[in-house]
Amino acid sequence: MKRSVRNKIYDKVFEIIGYTATFFGLIILLYFITDIVYEGWNRIDYDFLTSYTSRKAEKSGIFPAWVGSVWILALTLIISVPIGIASGIYFEEYAKKNKITYMLEVNIANLAGVPSIIYGLLGLEIFGRMFGFGSSILTGSLTLALLILPIIIVSTREALKAVPQSLRDASFALGASKWQTIWLQILPSSMGGVLTGTILALSRAVGETAPLIVIGALAYVPFIPSSPMDEFTVLPMQIFEWTSRPQHEFLINAAAAIIVLLCITFLMNGIAIYLRNKWQKKNQW
Amino acid sequence: MIELILKFSAFVSIGTTMGILYVLLSESIPFFREVSLIDFLTDTQWTPLFTNKHFGILPLITGTLTVTLIALLVAVPLGIIIAVFLSEYASPKFRRSIKPILEILAAIPTVVYGFFALMTVTPILQTIIPGLSGFNALSAGIVMGIMIIPMVSSLSEDAMYAVPKSLREASYAMGANKFQTAFKVVIPAAFSGIIVSIILAIARAIGETMIVAIAAGQQPRFTMDPTVPIQTLTAYIVQVSLGDIQHGSLEYKTIYAAGIMLFAITFLLNSISFYLRKKYQEKYI
After folding, report:
1. CB-based contact (8 Å) between A170 and chain B?
2. What is the pTM of this model?
3. Is residue B55 helix, strand or coil?
4. Of residues B27, B115, B273, nearest to A254 (C-beta)
5. Chain centroid to CA A179: how far?
6. By CB neighbour count within 10 A (0-12 exposed, 13-18 middle, 19+ buried), where does A129 fall?
7. Which of A176, A210, A251, B151 could link B209 by a cystine bridge, Cβ 3.0 to 4.6 Å?
8. Cβ contact (<8 Å) for A115 and B102?
């Protein structure tokens, strides 16, 4: 066979392998999700969403779990977003290029790679014991806020970096101070990127289980938390608890709860991607 | 004033790192006063919760390594094929639309992957491998591998995409086809970026908790056999956190000893990847 013909065949074959590899993971995921929906779909009804957990699988529900997840989401947002965006602004707009800044950057890159369960140990000891918050929603939110902080900082920086220098120059030329320029010009025009990163980070926080197990979040919560100092459970904890039981009925409950959790995850990711595309179209520098 | 507030936010991340170090050291130093470091690193039994106590970390290390290795065997070949395909073969439009979809694999909460591994993958594997235990490293590793595909593919693809066009054109001018150009020119040129992506994937796999806590079992064993129940560093911390262990007891301190081991390994891997990234970032610019 001529070499040129053989080369063309190689290319074609690799292209097929490439398509297969690209869709391999997605197809398996699709199979998993179909399986879950098949198992759990019929279990989801009004009672399932408004009942407490019970020893009987058919009577159990995810009311405390999803309320706990909403609490955690709200508090984590309140704690992490201002700090994350503020540090992003500091690095991009204020920090001088010196050893200390470099050290801070290395540190953030490293924190982004620290396993989430280590944050759990940190939260248990510092917030739970030292500050005396126990296994409360506040301890959980503070822990998760620290966990997602590096993601928010990095995406804020990326978004700010994309704003062209000319915008800053124009604002300064009109007599605006540095902070006015940042607050009124740069932040609004980078909001798409900042929001996208923040929502993705929060979606990660909603799905986290390991750090909350370590800080002592409960598996069985017979009440609805009414303040940040209350003990709590969240959807992933409830799924884990049901998954570790041998009876098949509880596994069906877990599948149903997974459907709810996946809906939340996909919704948040969808919003993030939508915002990113919208802002990319609007701001073409 | 504003700068000070922003600067303070940026230093929260330094506080986090110091907090992690403080917590891990303050609890594990008393542990190493009671258990010698040599026993800890060389004993092949880990039974701190039994009456006959052994404190050898090796079984947890082999468990962690087995799962990580299996995950890499899945994620690295697939991730690199996807990266080559997207950067060299696929149309820009396909590339742009498939990347966020692939990211979904990494956005699914890990407790959900744990459920998949236990309920879907293990039963399938049991029909292929008779005698496979209900809890095993193989199914946890495979599912974890699927989860980290986008980590490898996304970063490797960025690295390959950054290889200047002139290098490819030179290769085509010599009569090479796409396949030869991709594997003999682009991959070597983007090698450091690919290595970084693999190191980050390793760190992620070592720190992953819920998949192994659910699907790999809770039995520390000094073995690399993927078909039997094992325990990883992270799964051990979960097991102790779920139990009723007195704060301040030696058993309690073991989770910090496991934690510091985990932190040390991931910190080392993250630092190497950060160093490589900084060093090779601007090679072609």
Report:
1. no
2. 0.92
3. strand
4. B115
5. 29
6. middle
7. A210
8. no
pLDDT greater than 90 at residue A264: yes
Contact across the interface for A95 and B204, Cβ inside 8 Å: no
> Using CB atoms and an 8 Å cut-off, which of residues 70-129 of chain A contact chain B?
82-84, 86-87, 89-91, 94-95, 104, 106-122, 125-126, 129
Of A169-173, A275-279, B17-21, B71-75, give the lowest mean pLDDT range.
Answer: A275-279
Centre a 10 Å sphere on the Cβ of residue A231 and count the other Cβ atoms it contains. Answer: 17
| Domains identified in chain A, total number | 2
The 8 Å CB, 24+ separation contacts for B277-282 are B277/B192, B277/B193, B277/B196, B279/B192, B280/B192, B280/B193
Residue B285's pLDDT is what? 46
Q: What would the pLDDT profile of A65-78 be if each residue is shown by its tens digit?
A: 999 999 999 999 99
Q: Which CATH number fits domain B2-280: 1.10.3860.10, 3.40.1260.10, 1.10.3720.10, 2.40.50.40?
A: 1.10.3720.10
**B197 CA: distance to closest CA in chain A (Å):** 12
Is A89 in contact with B16 (Cβ distance < 8 A)?
no
Interchain contact, B17 vs A11, CB within 8 Å: no
A198-218 residue pLDDT tens: 999 999 999 999 999 999 887
What's the distance, CA B112 to chain centroid? 17
Element (H, E) at B35: none
